TrEMBL record:
InterPro entries: Chaperone_TCP-1, Cpn60/GroEL/TCP-1, GROEL-like_equatorial_sf, TCP-1-like_intermed_sf. It holds the Pfam family Cpn60_TCP1. The keyword Coiled coil does not apply. This is T-complex protein 1 subunit alpha. The gene is CCT1_2. It comes from Datura stramonium (Jimsonweed). SUPFAM superfamilies: GroEL equatorial domain-like, GroEL-intermediate domain like. Keywords: ATP-binding, Chaperone, Nucleotide-binding.
Length: 159
């Protein structure tokens, strides 16, 4: 009875957790005992279900190629890469400019492409930096190939 009482006092919002609370209440109402066991068994069943669902998605629904997409960047083709970038950046904030930003992202990743001494192609994503210019529009963004320093004026003579 104690677990049902504790669960009833919690403000649960997660759908799976709500199921556990309802299950504990039903067990307590019907039998007056066994709520802890019922909650533990149900939680383990939910854990198993989640594990199996993730396994199914990974085996049947996911395209394995995209797990290491940046290593196979050149093989996808620019249109596919732009579509991947648009999906990754889908947001209400840039929805109208998704083509603009997706193309910029693809160009930026292609700009940092390197081949190591073993002939392996690498894309050091940490080599891409964003500099924010306050007071500018997002549409004023551009890709600068090279190195940019975000600095202010050193002296008034620099006007």
């Amino acid at each position: 009875m104690m677990i049902a009482t504790i669960l009833r006092m919690l403000e649960v919002e997660h759908p799976a957790a709500k199921v556990l609370v309802e299950l504990a209440e039903l067990q307590d109402r019907e039998f007056g005992d066994g709520t802890t066991s019922v909650v533990i068994i149900a939680a383990e069943l939910l854990k198993l279900a989640m594990r199996e669902a993730c396994k199914y998605v990974e085996e049947k629904l996911a395209v394995k190629f995209f797990v290491h997409w940046f290593f196979e960047f050149d093989k996808l083709g620019k249109d596919s890469l732009v579509n991947c970038a648009k999906t990754s950046m889908s947001s209400k904030l840039i929805a109208d400019d998704s083509d603009f930003f997706a193309n910029m992202v693809v160009e930026a990743v292609q700009a940092v492409k390197m081949t190591n001494v073993r002939g392996e192609i690498k894309y050091p994503i940490k080599g891409i930096n964003l500099l924010k210019a306050h007071g500018k529009s997002a549409k004023d963004s551009y890709l600068l190939k090279g190195y940019a320093l975000n600095t202010g004026r050193a002296a008034q003579e620099c006007l």
